[in-house]
Specification:
The chain is mainly β and about 130 residues long. Helix content is about 10%, strand content about 35%. The longest helix is centred in the first third of the chain and has 14 residues.
């Protein structure tokens, strides 16, 4: 029986490739208060105009884009770069409804703070089951 063994360096190379292809999303913190929810995301290097916040009855979707810096003609390529550029999107589903009209979003010092007040009323629909 023939077995092929990989060297540990091959495994490190595979891990590095997986890290490069992995989707990076910003770190988030979600807090619940009596009045609503507060969502904070780390967005260093993101321009305010590229941030998009959308909401449904119980879901908040935040998306943005971090653009790669424009290289000067005489600039050399970096020896190592772990920065991630491009677009991403995150969604948050809440245990209770949110008041979409009351959403507020503030972006300062690389942090996005979104406050979503809880909905005061929830719509319920009853459906008659027919046989």
């Amino acid at each position: 029986m023939l077995t092929l063994r990989q060297s540990p360096f091959d495994l490190f190379e595979q891990l590095e490739q997986q890290l490069h292809t992995a989707e990076r999303v910003p770190a988030a913190e979600v807090r619940e208060t009596e009045a609503g929810f507060a969502i904070t995301l780390e967005l260093p290097g993101v321009k305010r105009d590229s941030i998009d916040v959308k909401a449904t009855d119980r879901t908040l979707v935040i998306s943005a884009e971090r653009l790669a810096p424009e290289e000067a003609a005489d600039a050399q390529a970096p020896l190592l770069s772990e920065f991630r550029y491009g677009t991403w999107s995150r969604s948050f589903r809440f245990p209770s409804g949110i008041e979409r009209e009351g959403l507020e979003a503030h972006y300062r010092d690389g942090l996005l703070l979104v406050t979503a007040p809880k909905a005061q009323t929830m719509t319920t629909v009853s459906v008659k089951v027919e046989g």
